[in-house]
Design goal:
mainly beta; two-stranded antiparallel sheet; 9% helix; globular; 16-stranded antiparallel barrel; Porin
């Protein structure tokens, strides 16, 4: 794969950047004190959802996350994060060590590969009760297997994390800019598969935390090893294959005072021999944060809105157990009430979601994920 050609130049760049960072920041680093006390963080998200199509409801604990980070030396850091209720499962999320020197950084282990800001968002950074189409479906892939002699399909996702190494460099002169280059297994989290191929990602961000910021990203690699049923001579057999996965993304964001506006567009291509599947996803979301008087119980209120789109989105039909695709727009409106000084630290959210299908899944009536809904969510993080 072409990505293999990046490895030696990438490692050489890392060594040069590290040396430059040490030379530039060595005197400053010697003057700074380093704390070795671990920093603990976590988040709990609980919600009440009402299905406006069937009139059903449910209480749901979406996330129970706990993490720790810290320093083991002046330049060496670590990060561990576990979700004890990731849709009913315990899952190790982050587990990596890092090294920083000046503007240079490198992280080795299980981590986010930073293709997309919205894909990276978790319970402490997501502003809505439910994820966007881009965050939920963009990294999906599919295959088929035999079950009781019948061919059944499956749809899986690579997610936002993988096992590998990520190099970063922050340019501190002039306009803020940060570059990311990473190499990963391509097998997803908690799955250290052996392989002869590597997945590579590159990203560049221009702009700071205030004002206008833009980002471009590209991902090239392969899906994890997957099963695909092959029919020949009247028989059916399973074979293990890999599908080439490529993604390109563009982001724009504007922040000023209490105003936040952000848009993303991404395109994913699955190459399966002569066949090709293209999915596109986009979103625009915004809020404005109003501070409330001291005597008010909430500290702020933030009206919030999101429009997102997904075209040719992979979906596993829960009735036929076959893969199909849908096209949809979705409008989410609501308000977030904050009970702390920092945004998302302690919030109650009210969200209404309206789906507008161009191509509706054939199991729409039984698949509640596609129904209009009203959600009340509480998020507490520390």
């Amino acid at each position: 794969m072409k990505a293999k050609r990046w490895i030696l130049p990438l490692l050489a760049w890392g060594c040069v950047a590290s040396a430059a960072g040490q030379a530039a920041g060595g005197d400053t680093a010697r003057r700074q004190s380093v704390s070795y006390v671990p920093q603990v963080d976590g988040a709990v998200k609980v919600k009440l959802e009402t299905d406006l199509y069937g009139g059903e409801y449910r209480f749901n604990v979406r996330n129970s996350r706990f993490g720790v980070r810290g320093n083991v030396s002046r330049n060496m850091t670590y990060r561990i994060q576990v979700d004890f209720n990731n849709e009913g499962k315990v899952s190790v999320l982050d587990s990596y060590v890092g090294y920083t020197a000046g503007g240079f950084g490198v992280q080795l282990g299980q981590q986010q590969y930073h293709f997309s800001t919205d894909l990276d968002r978790g319970p402490t950074t997501n502003m809505f009760a439910n994820r966007s189409f881009l965050a939920k479906y963009l990294t999906g892939y599919y295959g088929s297997e035999l079950s009781g002699g019948e061919v059944v399909g499956y749809v899986r996702t690579l997610g936002s994390r993988d096992l590998g190494v990520m190099f970063t460099y922050a340019f501190r002169a002039g306009v803020p800019m940060k570059a990311y280059v990473g190499i990963f297994n391509g097998s997803g989290i908690n799955n250290p598969q052996w392989g002869k191929k590597v997945n590579a990602v590159g990203r560049i961000e221009i702009g700071g935390s205030e004002g206008l910021r833009g980002a471009l990203a590209y991902y090239d690699g392969y899906t994890p090893l997957q099963l695909k049923v092959k029919e020949s001579d009247g028989g059916k057999t399973e074979e293990r294959v890999q599908t080439r996965l490529r993604m390109a993304g563009l982001e724009l964001r504007y922040v000023r005072g209490g105003l936040f506006v952000e848009g993303e567009y991404a395109r994913r291509i699955l190459d399966m021999g002569a066949a090709r599947e293209v999915m596109t996803a986009a979103l625009v979301h915004a809020y404005y944060r109003f501070g409330l008087p001291e005597k008010a119980l909430p500290r702020y209120v933030a009206p919030i809105v999101r429009w997102d789109l997904g075209n040719n989105v992979d979906h596993l039909n829960v009735t036929t157990r076959q893969r199909e695709a849908f096209d949809a727009n979705r409008l989410t409106v609501g308000a977030n009430l904050g009970f702390g000084e920092k945004l998302i630290r302690s919030e109650v959210r009210f969200n209404y979601e309206k789906y507008l299908f161009g191509k509706k899944p054939s199991d729409f009536a039984s698949e509640r994920a596609f129904h209009d809904r009203f959600t009340i969510e509480v998020v507490a993080s520390f």
